[in-house]
Amino acid sequence: MFIINLTYIVPLEELDQHMAEHVKHLEKYYDKNIFVAWGRKEPRTGGIILALAASKTVIEEITKEDPFYTRKLAEFDITEFLPTTYHPDLKNLLG
Questions:
Q1: How far is residue 65's CA from residue 10's CA, in Å, rounded to a whole number?
Q2: CA Rg, the chain, in Å?
Q3: Per-domain residue ranges for the chain?
Q4: Among 6, 33, 74, 95, which is 20 to 30 Å from 43 by CA?
């Protein structure tokens, strides 16, 4: 499992102009069962994406497609972790 931590590096007004493209990217990988959750940080300084993939390399390649990455609107930090304990409702997802 991976945590993709986005930190916005442009004003929110500029970022919001590309939000629809960013959400389309998120939904593409949600439909492929790679992105499992995402949302904005509070305060709104960035976002978090939870992802499942075979390797960090896969996540890095997917990240390079994100409009926030290609347009240099946010910095991306990827952290891999191995869930050892999780809620039973996540069993099928993490299988």
A1: 18
A2: 14
A3: 7-45+59-94
A4: 33
